[in-house]
Amino acid sequence: MELFELALQTPTGRRRHRLLEACGGDEQLAEEVAAQAAGHDHMGEFLLHSPIAALAEETRFAPGEVVAGRFHVIREVGEGGMGIVYEVFDRKVGRRCAL
Fold first, then answer.
1. Does the predicted model carry a pTM greater than 0.70?
2. Tens place of pLDDT for every residue, the chain, 99 residues?
3. Would you list the domain boundaries of the chain?
4. Which of 8, 47, 76, 80 has its CA at a distance of 20 to 30 angstroms from the CA of residue 16?
5. Cβ-count burial of 19 within 10 angstroms (0-12 exposed, 13-18 middle, 19+ buried)?
């Protein structure tokens, strides 16, 4: 990770030379780190901002709302990398559950 961070901090034109020095002349290692840094450069900040989080902000359910004509939202329980969890009352089966 230290080599990768060094690569990202170095302008692309000087990157190979600086990595070669930092790797003690190990060309294979320097090339591998440079390739990873180039991939990062190509992707930009793509992985730094979650499109799921942005979508979740647009689709939050409010207490009292009915989802899919079946689930009466009681409250938001929590959220994580995969989405938001709600405590709901399932009108079809007549009990509380998670959505």
1. no
2. 888 888 889 998 899 899 999 999 999 999 999 998 888 887 776 666 666 565 556 678 999 999 999 999 999 999 887 788 999 999 999 999 999
3. 2-48, 51-98
4. 47
5. buried
